[in-house]
Amino acid sequence: MGVKRERVPFVLTADFVYLIQRGPIQDNEMMKSFKELCLSAYMALRKKSHFLITLFMMMTNTGIPELSNFQSIEFLCKTLVPDYSDQDARNHWNRQVGEALSNSFWAAVNFAFHNVAKNN
Fold first, then answer.
1. Residue 28 DSSP symbol
2. Lowest CB count within 10 Å: 4, 25, 34, 53, which one?
3. Domains detected in the chain
4. Among 50, 44, 38, which Cα is nearest to 93's?
């Protein structure tokens, strides 16, 4: 319908944050631990980024709707930033987390539209 649904790098709604933090206290130890775990996972994926990008490129011909064009590959490249240094990649990830947190309203709206479309 011409509406850009994906407005955040990944879904991290206020409800998710509340659950992660186990309450309303902002940026507590639980949230810090969550961010550290996510950063570790991200950095591990980056180490295999060229393999993952190649694998996803090969899957574009499989008929999987989410991989029907190279925009998915571009998204993967922009997310994993394989040409960045490790420190630049960490900074990139931290900016992505900040963007996801500050735009959690749009993620919740996207969720709502997705649920409506799925149930109709």
1. -
2. 4
3. 14-119 (1.10.1070.11)
4. 38
- What are the distances in angstroms from CA 90 to CA 12, 47, 80? 18, 13, 10
The model's pLDDT over 2-24, given as tens digits with 9 standing for 90+, comes to 445 455 677 787 888 888 888 87
How far apart are the C-alpha atoms of 42 and 93, rounded to whole Å? 8
- Residue/partner pairs of 37-40 with CB below 8 Å, 24 or more apart: 38/93, 38/97, 39/90, 39/93, 39/94
Q: What is the pTM of this model?
A: 0.74
In 3-state terms the chain splits into helix, strand, coil percentages (rounded to 5) of: 70, 0, 30
Q: How far is CA 8 from CA 59, 103, 116, in A?
A: 25, 7, 20
DSSP-derived 3-state class of residue 58? helix
